[in-house]
Amino acid sequence: MKILITGGNGSMGSRLAAPLVRRGDEVTLLDRVAEPRVRTPEFERCRVAVGDITDGERISEIVAAGEFDSIFHLAALMSSDAEEHPDAAWQVNMVGTRNVLEAARKHDAGRVIFTSTVATYGRMTEDPVPVDSPQWPESLYGATKVAGERLGVYYHHRFGVDFRGLRLVATVAPFGSTGGASGYCSQVYLDAVRKGAYDFYLEPETRAPIIYIEDAVSALIALHDAPASDLTRRVYTLSGIAPSAEEMAASILRQLPDVKFTYRPDPTLNAVVDSWPDRYDDSASRADWGWDPKVDLDAITRAVIEGITAAR
Protein backbone atom coordinates (compact mmCIF):
# COMPACT_ATOMS: atom_id res chain seq x y z
CA MET A 1 0.00 0.00 0.00
CA LYS A 2 0.97 3.64 -0.40
CA ILE A 3 0.88 5.17 3.09
CA LEU A 4 1.36 8.72 4.36
CA ILE A 5 2.30 9.36 8.01
CA THR A 6 1.78 12.92 9.25
CA GLY A 7 4.13 13.82 12.04
CA GLY A 8 6.14 11.08 10.39
CA ASN A 9 9.53 12.11 11.78
CA GLY A 10 8.31 12.25 15.39
CA SER A 11 8.74 9.58 18.03
CA MET A 12 5.65 7.58 17.08
CA GLY A 13 5.86 8.20 13.34
CA SER A 14 9.49 7.13 13.11
CA ARG A 15 8.73 3.83 14.80
CA LEU A 16 5.50 3.23 12.90
CA ALA A 17 7.24 3.60 9.55
CA ALA A 18 9.70 0.76 10.21
CA PRO A 19 7.31 -2.24 10.30
CA LEU A 20 5.27 -0.81 7.42
CA VAL A 21 8.39 -0.57 5.26
CA ARG A 22 9.54 -4.05 6.28
CA ARG A 23 6.30 -5.59 5.09
CA GLY A 24 6.53 -3.85 1.72
CA ASP A 25 4.40 -0.71 2.03
CA GLU A 26 5.55 2.49 0.30
CA VAL A 27 5.78 5.02 3.13
CA THR A 28 5.97 8.81 2.92
CA LEU A 29 6.78 10.79 6.06
CA LEU A 30 5.21 14.25 6.27
CA ASP A 31 6.77 16.60 8.80
CA ARG A 32 8.02 20.13 9.25
CA VAL A 33 11.57 18.80 9.46
CA ALA A 34 13.41 16.39 7.19
CA GLU A 35 15.28 14.43 9.87
CA PRO A 36 13.58 11.77 12.02
CA ARG A 37 13.52 11.89 15.80
CA VAL A 38 14.44 8.19 15.81
CA ARG A 39 16.52 7.05 12.84
CA THR A 40 15.78 3.43 11.96
CA PRO A 41 17.40 1.48 9.12
CA GLU A 42 14.07 1.63 7.30
CA PHE A 43 14.13 5.45 7.20
CA GLU A 44 16.32 5.37 4.10
CA ARG A 45 13.56 3.51 2.27
CA CYS A 46 10.93 6.15 3.05
CA ARG A 47 10.08 9.26 1.10
CA VAL A 48 10.07 12.51 3.08
CA ALA A 49 7.67 15.38 2.35
CA VAL A 50 8.45 18.58 4.22
CA GLY A 51 5.36 20.64 4.98
CA ASP A 52 3.27 22.26 7.69
CA ILE A 53 0.09 20.40 8.66
CA THR A 54 -1.70 23.76 8.98
CA ASP A 55 -1.05 24.59 5.29
CA GLY A 56 -4.12 23.15 3.60
CA GLU A 57 -2.85 23.72 0.04
CA ARG A 58 0.45 22.01 0.77
CA ILE A 59 -1.27 19.01 2.42
CA SER A 60 -3.66 18.68 -0.51
CA GLU A 61 -0.75 18.86 -2.95
CA ILE A 62 1.18 16.12 -1.11
CA VAL A 63 -1.83 13.79 -0.87
CA ALA A 64 -2.74 14.33 -4.52
CA ALA A 65 0.80 13.61 -5.72
CA GLY A 66 1.24 10.55 -3.51
CA GLU A 67 -1.98 8.78 -4.51
CA PHE A 68 -2.09 7.31 -1.01
CA ASP A 69 -4.26 4.40 0.03
CA SER A 70 -4.07 5.35 3.70
CA ILE A 71 -3.03 8.19 6.00
CA PHE A 72 -1.87 7.79 9.58
CA HIS A 73 -2.55 11.23 11.06
CA LEU A 74 -0.19 11.53 14.04
CA ALA A 75 0.75 15.23 13.86
CA ALA A 76 -0.41 17.07 16.99
CA LEU A 77 0.62 19.54 19.65
CA MET A 78 0.59 17.68 22.96
CA SER A 79 -1.04 18.61 26.25
CA SER A 80 1.38 20.85 28.14
CA ASP A 81 2.62 22.45 24.90
CA ALA A 82 -1.00 23.07 23.94
CA GLU A 83 -1.68 24.84 27.23
CA GLU A 84 1.38 27.02 26.73
CA HIS A 85 0.66 27.75 23.05
CA PRO A 86 -3.12 27.53 22.61
CA ASP A 87 -3.26 29.33 19.26
CA ALA A 88 -0.70 26.95 17.78
CA ALA A 89 -2.54 23.98 19.28
CA TRP A 90 -5.76 25.09 17.62
CA GLN A 91 -4.04 25.42 14.25
CA VAL A 92 -2.19 22.09 14.44
CA ASN A 93 -4.81 19.94 16.12
CA MET A 94 -7.96 21.43 14.63
CA VAL A 95 -7.09 23.04 11.30
CA GLY A 96 -4.46 20.39 10.61
CA THR A 97 -6.91 17.54 11.17
CA ARG A 98 -9.48 19.11 8.87
CA ASN A 99 -6.77 19.61 6.25
CA VAL A 100 -5.93 15.91 6.34
CA LEU A 101 -9.55 14.78 6.18
CA GLU A 102 -10.33 17.19 3.37
CA ALA A 103 -7.30 16.04 1.38
CA ALA A 104 -8.32 12.42 1.91
CA ARG A 105 -11.81 13.21 0.65
CA LYS A 106 -10.65 15.15 -2.41
CA HIS A 107 -7.95 12.72 -3.49
CA ASP A 108 -9.49 9.37 -2.56
CA ALA A 109 -7.11 8.38 0.23
CA GLY A 110 -9.89 6.26 1.59
CA ARG A 111 -8.52 5.32 5.02
CA VAL A 112 -7.46 7.75 7.76
CA ILE A 113 -6.10 6.46 11.08
CA PHE A 114 -6.32 9.18 13.74
CA THR A 115 -4.46 9.15 17.04
CA SER A 116 -6.65 10.46 19.83
CA THR A 117 -6.16 10.24 23.59
CA VAL A 118 -7.83 9.00 26.74
CA ALA A 119 -7.46 12.62 27.92
CA THR A 120 -10.69 13.21 25.98
CA TYR A 121 -12.60 11.70 28.90
CA GLY A 122 -11.38 14.04 31.63
CA ARG A 123 -11.94 13.17 35.26
CA MET A 124 -14.03 10.00 35.54
CA THR A 125 -15.14 7.85 38.46
CA GLU A 126 -15.89 4.56 36.71
CA ASP A 127 -13.14 1.93 36.68
CA PRO A 128 -12.56 0.88 33.98
CA VAL A 129 -13.94 3.82 32.01
CA PRO A 130 -16.53 2.58 29.48
CA VAL A 131 -15.54 3.35 25.89
CA ASP A 132 -18.72 5.36 25.31
CA SER A 133 -18.50 7.44 28.49
CA PRO A 134 -19.24 11.15 28.01
CA GLN A 135 -16.12 13.06 27.04
CA TRP A 136 -15.50 16.14 29.15
CA PRO A 137 -11.75 16.83 28.79
CA GLU A 138 -9.97 19.16 31.19
CA SER A 139 -7.24 20.21 28.75
CA LEU A 140 -7.18 22.00 25.40
CA TYR A 141 -5.36 19.01 23.92
CA GLY A 142 -8.20 16.72 24.99
CA ALA A 143 -10.81 19.14 23.68
CA THR A 144 -9.18 19.30 20.24
CA LYS A 145 -8.95 15.52 20.10
CA VAL A 146 -12.66 15.11 20.89
CA ALA A 147 -13.38 17.53 18.06
CA GLY A 148 -11.03 15.61 15.76
CA GLU A 149 -12.84 12.36 16.52
CA ARG A 150 -16.22 13.89 15.79
CA LEU A 151 -14.98 15.52 12.59
CA GLY A 152 -13.55 12.22 11.39
CA VAL A 153 -16.81 10.41 12.06
CA TYR A 154 -18.62 13.17 10.13
CA TYR A 155 -16.30 12.67 7.13
CA HIS A 156 -17.03 8.95 7.32
CA HIS A 157 -20.79 9.37 7.30
CA ARG A 158 -20.91 12.33 4.90
CA PHE A 159 -18.17 11.45 2.41
CA GLY A 160 -17.34 7.79 2.95
CA VAL A 161 -13.82 8.33 4.30
CA ASP A 162 -12.79 5.18 6.18
CA PHE A 163 -11.94 7.04 9.39
CA ARG A 164 -10.60 4.99 12.31
CA GLY A 165 -9.59 6.60 15.59
CA LEU A 166 -7.54 5.22 18.46
CA ARG A 167 -7.51 6.76 21.94
CA LEU A 168 -4.02 6.16 23.32
CA VAL A 169 -2.77 6.21 26.87
CA ALA A 170 0.71 7.65 27.43
CA THR A 171 3.31 5.89 25.31
CA VAL A 172 6.72 5.16 26.82
CA ALA A 173 9.76 4.95 24.56
CA PRO A 174 13.50 5.58 24.38
CA PHE A 175 13.75 9.23 23.34
CA GLY A 176 9.95 9.44 23.41
CA SER A 177 7.81 12.56 23.16
CA THR A 178 8.02 14.81 26.22
CA GLY A 179 5.75 17.70 25.24
CA GLY A 180 2.69 16.53 27.17
CA ALA A 181 1.77 16.28 30.82
CA SER A 182 2.73 12.61 30.57
CA GLY A 183 6.14 13.49 29.11
CA TYR A 184 7.82 12.37 32.32
CA CYS A 185 6.98 8.76 31.41
CA SER A 186 9.78 8.79 28.82
CA GLN A 187 11.96 11.60 30.20
CA VAL A 188 12.47 9.82 33.52
CA TYR A 189 14.29 6.98 31.74
CA LEU A 190 16.45 9.30 29.66
CA ASP A 191 17.54 11.33 32.68
CA ALA A 192 18.06 8.20 34.77
CA VAL A 193 20.50 6.80 32.19
CA ARG A 194 22.24 10.02 31.18
CA LYS A 195 22.15 12.12 34.35
CA GLY A 196 21.71 9.56 37.10
CA ALA A 197 18.83 11.59 38.56
CA TYR A 198 15.29 12.75 37.86
CA ASP A 199 13.07 15.34 39.51
CA PHE A 200 9.40 14.35 39.18
CA TYR A 201 6.89 17.18 38.74
CA LEU A 202 4.27 14.90 40.34
CA GLU A 203 3.34 13.68 43.77
CA PRO A 204 4.92 10.25 44.41
CA GLU A 205 1.53 8.53 44.40
CA THR A 206 0.21 10.16 41.19
CA ARG A 207 -0.52 7.57 38.50
CA ALA A 208 -0.77 7.65 34.71
CA PRO A 209 -1.89 4.87 32.35
CA ILE A 210 0.95 3.84 30.01
CA ILE A 211 1.84 1.40 27.24
CA TYR A 212 5.14 0.66 25.55
CA ILE A 213 5.68 2.34 22.18
CA GLU A 214 5.91 -0.95 20.28
CA ASP A 215 2.49 -1.99 21.59
CA ALA A 216 1.04 1.34 20.44
CA VAL A 217 2.57 0.88 16.97
CA SER A 218 1.24 -2.67 16.74
CA ALA A 219 -2.22 -1.42 17.72
CA LEU A 220 -2.23 1.27 15.04
CA ILE A 221 -1.27 -1.24 12.36
CA ALA A 222 -3.80 -3.81 13.58
CA LEU A 223 -6.60 -1.23 13.50
CA HIS A 224 -5.49 -0.08 10.06
CA ASP A 225 -5.43 -3.63 8.68
CA ALA A 226 -8.71 -4.83 10.19
CA PRO A 227 -11.42 -5.59 7.62
CA ALA A 228 -14.14 -2.96 7.70
CA SER A 229 -16.71 -5.68 8.33
CA ASP A 230 -15.00 -6.55 11.65
CA LEU A 231 -15.29 -3.04 13.08
CA THR A 232 -18.17 -2.25 15.39
CA ARG A 233 -17.23 1.41 15.93
CA ARG A 234 -15.22 4.27 14.45
CA VAL A 235 -13.10 5.15 17.52
CA TYR A 236 -11.47 2.64 19.85
CA THR A 237 -9.74 2.91 23.22
CA LEU A 238 -6.58 1.28 24.54
CA SER A 239 -5.76 0.58 28.15
CA GLY A 240 -2.47 -0.37 29.77
CA ILE A 241 -0.89 -0.34 33.21
CA ALA A 242 -1.01 2.63 35.57
CA PRO A 243 2.12 2.86 37.72
CA SER A 244 2.61 5.69 40.16
CA ALA A 245 5.63 7.95 39.91
CA GLU A 246 7.27 6.17 42.82
CA GLU A 247 6.54 2.75 41.28
CA MET A 248 8.26 3.87 38.08
CA ALA A 249 11.21 5.05 40.15
CA ALA A 250 11.35 1.70 41.95
CA SER A 251 11.32 -0.18 38.65
CA ILE A 252 14.22 1.92 37.36
CA LEU A 253 16.15 1.38 40.59
CA ARG A 254 15.93 -2.36 40.05
CA GLN A 255 17.96 -1.79 36.88
CA LEU A 256 19.99 1.28 37.87
CA PRO A 257 20.32 1.25 41.67
CA ASP A 258 22.35 4.48 41.93
CA VAL A 259 19.79 6.82 40.34
CA LYS A 260 18.51 9.61 42.60
CA PHE A 261 14.84 10.62 42.48
CA THR A 262 13.20 13.72 43.92
CA TYR A 263 9.65 15.05 43.84
CA ARG A 264 8.75 18.71 43.26
CA PRO A 265 5.07 18.63 42.28
CA ASP A 266 3.84 21.18 39.77
CA PRO A 267 0.21 21.85 40.78
CA THR A 268 -1.01 22.32 37.20
CA LEU A 269 0.70 19.30 35.66
CA ASN A 270 -0.01 17.06 38.65
CA ALA A 271 -3.71 17.99 38.44
CA VAL A 272 -3.83 17.11 34.73
CA VAL A 273 -2.21 13.72 35.23
CA ASP A 274 -4.20 13.01 38.37
CA SER A 275 -7.44 13.64 36.44
CA TRP A 276 -6.79 10.63 34.20
CA PRO A 277 -8.44 7.37 35.22
CA ASP A 278 -6.20 4.34 35.65
CA ARG A 279 -8.05 1.90 33.38
CA TYR A 280 -10.22 2.04 30.28
CA ASP A 281 -12.52 -0.53 28.73
CA ASP A 282 -10.61 -1.78 25.70
CA SER A 283 -12.72 -4.91 25.16
CA ALA A 284 -13.90 -3.72 21.73
CA SER A 285 -10.27 -3.30 20.62
CA ARG A 286 -9.47 -6.81 21.81
CA ALA A 287 -12.54 -8.35 20.18
CA ASP A 288 -12.58 -6.50 16.85
CA TRP A 289 -8.90 -6.39 15.87
CA GLY A 290 -6.91 -8.34 18.43
CA TRP A 291 -5.41 -5.72 20.76
CA ASP A 292 -3.16 -7.58 23.20
CA PRO A 293 -0.41 -5.62 24.99
CA LYS A 294 2.57 -7.78 25.85
CA VAL A 295 4.65 -6.01 28.49
CA ASP A 296 4.57 -5.09 32.18
CA LEU A 297 6.32 -2.21 33.96
CA ASP A 298 9.66 -3.95 34.52
CA ALA A 299 9.66 -5.18 30.90
CA ILE A 300 9.03 -1.62 29.71
CA THR A 301 11.82 -0.35 31.95
CA ARG A 302 14.31 -2.88 30.62
CA ALA A 303 13.41 -2.20 26.99
CA VAL A 304 13.58 1.60 27.32
CA ILE A 305 16.87 1.60 29.23
CA GLU A 306 18.39 -0.82 26.72
CA GLY A 307 17.25 1.42 23.85
CA ILE A 308 18.76 4.55 25.40
CA THR A 309 22.00 2.80 26.32
CA ALA A 310 22.41 1.31 22.84
CA ALA A 311 22.20 4.79 21.30
CA ARG A 312 25.13 6.15 23.29
Following the backbone from N to C, one meets helices and strands in this order, namely EHEEHEHHEHEEHEEHEHEHHH
Q: How widely separated are the two ends? A: 35 Å
Q: Any idea of the CATH topology of the largest domain?
A: Rossmann fold
| Number of structural domains | 2
**Mean model confidence by pLDDT:** 93
For the secondary structure, the number of strands is: 11
Rg of Cα set: 19 Å
Roughly how much helix do the residues carry, as a percent range? 40-55%
Estimate the strand proportion: 15-25%
The CATH fourth-level homologous superfamily of the largest domain? NAD(P)-binding Rossmann-like Domain
Judging by the overall fold, what is the CATH architecture of the largest domain? 3-Layer(aba) Sandwich
Low-confidence stretches: none
From the helix content, strand content and strand pairing, which structural class follows? Answer: alpha/beta
Which CATH first-tier class of the largest domain would you pick?
A: Alpha Beta
Strand order of the largest sheet: 3-2-1-4-5-6-10
Write down the overall geometry.
globular
Number of DSSP helical runs = 11
Main sheet?
Answer: 7 strands, parallel
